[in-house]
Design goal:
It is a single chain. By secondary structure, the protein is mostly beta strands. It has one domain. The protein is 4% helix and 60% strand. It starts with a strand and ends with a strand.
Length: 104
């Protein structure tokens, strides 16, 4: 079974057993996470895209790690004006293993 879920303003295509990195979610290592915003489901038969049936669907996962991604450098520069700015950013993420895709 395959699903498309929404989390942190992004959409992810997931299958059972897959590991995904989403925006930081609350929860410690080993905690269970539930994704209720399911946008699409596909099993053996026809895909489900009906909003009424998708409200009853959910995707369960287990938190593997909490961490920060690699540093992204942002550089601002104006020529001949002696203006230079350099700033770094590390985005927080949660690694989640998808354990179950349920359709009510």
């Amino acid at each position: 079974m395959e699903a498309v879920i929404a989390s942190g303003g992004k959409q992810y295509r997931v299958k059972e057993g897959q590991v995904i990195r989403v925006e930081r979610l609350p929860g410690e290592k080993g905690a269970t996470v539930e994704f209720r915003e399911v946008r699409y489901l596909k099993g053996e038969g026809e895909p489900i895209v009906d909003a009424g049936r998708l409200t009853k669907a959910r995707v369960l996962g287990q938190v593997l790690t909490q961490g920060k991604a690699r540093k992204v450098l942002v550089v601002k520069f104006k020529r001949r004006k002696n203006y230079r700015r350099r700033k770094g950013h590390r985005q927080a993420f949660t690694a989640v293993r998808i354990t179950k895709i349920e359709v009510a």
